[in-house]
C-alpha cells in the first residue's frame, strides 16, 4: 500500500540512493523499510543473472548503485531477511580464505538463503583431476550462484563460460578481486562520506596483490589522486597503470613519507609470499613497509587505514587502537556489500 505508485517507489529509491536510509529506517516500520529495499532491487534488475568477473565490467553509475544497496542492507544484515529464501550459493575455494568465503556465506544466510561448497580443493574431486569446466557444469545443478576463488588468472572468466548460473570472482590469482574493491569503496564512502576528492595511497605488494588491481581500476572511475607505494620489484602492473592513466592522476614511489600528510586513505597490503616464483626475490622485499602508530603522527587526523587482511607485519598492533584503524570495520562492510551483490544478482524482489 505504502509504495503503491511507481513515482512514490522511485522517490523512495532516490532517497535510499542519497543514503538517507537511516533516517527512513528510523521513521518507517521495519517491514516497510524491507519493502523499500526490495523495491530498489526491482530497479536493479539489470544486475540479475550477471557474472561478476572484473571490476572493469562495471560503470561508475553501477558501482554507486551497488554501494547504495549495500548501505540499505546494513539494518537488514542485523535483523535478517527471507529475501533469498530457497536460493543456494556454492563457494568453491581452490585457494585458502577465511574472510571472503565466510563473508559470502554469512551474507547468503542473512538473506535467508543457504550455502554449500568446499574450502579445500585437495579434498574435492579436483584432486581426482576434474577440470574447472566440468566442475562448473556439475555445480550449476546444485546452486543458483557460484563464488569462485582460484589461483589462476582468467579462471573466473573461463568458469563463467561454462556455468549457466552467475559466477562471482572471489579472487583470480594475482589478477583481480572485484568484490573486495567494492567493499573497500563502500568503506571509504561510509567512513569519509564521499570518494571524489580523496588522496589515496596503495602500499605494499602492488604486483602480486589482486585487491589493489581491482581497487585501482574502480577508483579510476572517481575523481581521486592515487599514490602507488611499493618496492621497485613490486610496482603496480603496467596494464593497470595504462588503463587508469587515461582517467586519473597517480604517482609511483618507494617511500610513504612524502605522501603521508596529504592522504585521506592509507590502504596497506601484505607481500604475497605465495605468489613469488623465487624465495630469494621474496627475501629482498620481505618487511618492506611496517606501519606503526608513531609513523602515523604526520597523518591527517581523519585519515583512515585500510587493509584487506590477513595482515602479517605491515601494520603493527599499536595502530589498532588509533583513530585511524578501519580494517576490522571493513570485514563487516564486506558482509553488507556481498549481501547487496547476491540480492541483485539473484533478483531478490519479494
Ligand atoms: C586478500 C586476497 O585473498 O587477495 N584477502 C582477502 O580476500 N580479504 C588479500 C591477501 O590475501 O593478502
What is the CATH superfamily label of the largest domain?
A: Aspartate/ornithine carbamoyltransferase
* CATH architectural label of the largest domain: 3-Layer(aba) Sandwich
* Assembly category: single chain
Q: Report the span from N to C terminus.
A: 14 Å
- The outline comes out as globular
Low-confidence stretches: 1-12
Strand order of the largest sheet: 7-6-5-8-9
Count of β-strands? 9
Helix percent band:
40-55%
Query: What number of structural domains do the residues give?
Result: 2
Which sequence of SSEs, written as H and E, runs from N to C? HHHHEHEHEHEHEHEHEEHEH
Reading off the top of the CATH hierarchy, the class of the largest domain is best stated as Alpha Beta
Radius of gyration: 20 Å
| Overall pLDDT level | 90
As a percent range, the share of strand residues is 5-15%
User: What is CATH's topology name of the largest domain?
Assistant: Rossmann fold
The unique ligands bound to this protein are:
N-carbamoyl-L-aspartate
Structural commentary:
The strands form 2 sheets. The protein has a 5-stranded parallel β-sheet, with helices on one face. The chain is globular. The protein has 350 residues and is an alpha/beta fold. The N terminus is likely disordered. The chain is built from 12 helices and 9 strands. It has 2 domains: 182 residues, Aspartate/ornithine carbamoyltransferase (Rossmann fold, 3-Layer(aba) Sandwich); 153 residues, Rossmann fold, CATH 3.40.50.1370. Helix 3 packs antiparallel against helix 4 and helix 5 crosses helix 12. Strand 8, helix 11 and strand 9 form a beta-alpha-beta unit. Bound molecules: N-carbamoyl-L-aspartate.
Amino acid at each position: 500500500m505504502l509504495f503503491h505508485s511507481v513515482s512514490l517507489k522511485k522517490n523512495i529509491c532516490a532517497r535510499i540512493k542519497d543514503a538517507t536510509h537511516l533516517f527512513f529506517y528510523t521513521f518507517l516500520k521495519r517491514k516497510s523499510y524491507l519493502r523499500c529495499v526490495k523495491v530498489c532491487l526491482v530497479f536493479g534488475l539489470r544486475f540479475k543473472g550477471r557474472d561478476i568477473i572484473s571490476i572493469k565490467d562495471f560503470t561508475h553509475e553501477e558501482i554507486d548503485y551497488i554501494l547504495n544497496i549495500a548501505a540499505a542492507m546494513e539494518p537488514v544484515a542485523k535483523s535478517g531477511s527471507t529475501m533469498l529464501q530457497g536460493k543456494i550459493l556454492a563457494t568453491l575455494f581452490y585457494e585458502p580464505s577465511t574472510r571472503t568465503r565466510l563473508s559470502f556465506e554469512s551474507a547468503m544466510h542473512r538473506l535467508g538463503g543457504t550455502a554449500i561448497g568446499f574450502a579445500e580443493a585437495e579434498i574435492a574431486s579436483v584432486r581426482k583431476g576434474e577440470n574447472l569446466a566440468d566442475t562448473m557444469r556439475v555445480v550449476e545443478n546444485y546452486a543458483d550462484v557460484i563464488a569462485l576463488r582460484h589461483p589462476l588468472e582468467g579462471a573466473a572468466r573461463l568458469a563463467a563460460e561454462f556455468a549457466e548460473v552467475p559466477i562471482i570472482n572471489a579472487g583470480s590469482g594475482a589478477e583481480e578481486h572485484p568484490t573486495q574493491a567494492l567493499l573497500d569503496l563502500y568503506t571509504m564512502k561510509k567512513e569519509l562520506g564521499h570518494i571524489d576528492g580523496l588522496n589515496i595511497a596503495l602500499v605494499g605488494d602492488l604486483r602480486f596483490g589482486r585487491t589493489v588491481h581491482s581497487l585501482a581500476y574502480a577508483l579510476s572511475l572517481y575523481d581521486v589522486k592515487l599514490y602507488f607505494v611499493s618496492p621497485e620489484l613490486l610496482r603496480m602492473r603496467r596494464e593497470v597503470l595504462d588503463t587508469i592513466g587515461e582517467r586519473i592522476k597517480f604517482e609511483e614511489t618507494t617511500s610513504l613519507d612524502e605522501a603521508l600528510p596529504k592522504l585521506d586513505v592509507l590502504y596497506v597490503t601484505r607481500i604475497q609470499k605465495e605468489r613469488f616464483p623465487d624465495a630469494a626475490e621474496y627475501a629482498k622485499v620481505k618487511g618492506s613497509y611496517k606501519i606503526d602508530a608513531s609513523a602515523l603522527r604526520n597523518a591527517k587526523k581523519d585519515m583512515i587505514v585500510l587493509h584487506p587482511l590477513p595482515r602479517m607485519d605491515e601494520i603493527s598492533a599499536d595502530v589498532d587502537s588509533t583513530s585511524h584503524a578501519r580494517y576490522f570495520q571493513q570485514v563487516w562492510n564486506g558482509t553488507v556489500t556481498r549481501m547487496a551483490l547476491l540480492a541483485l544478482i539473484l533478483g531478490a524482489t519479494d
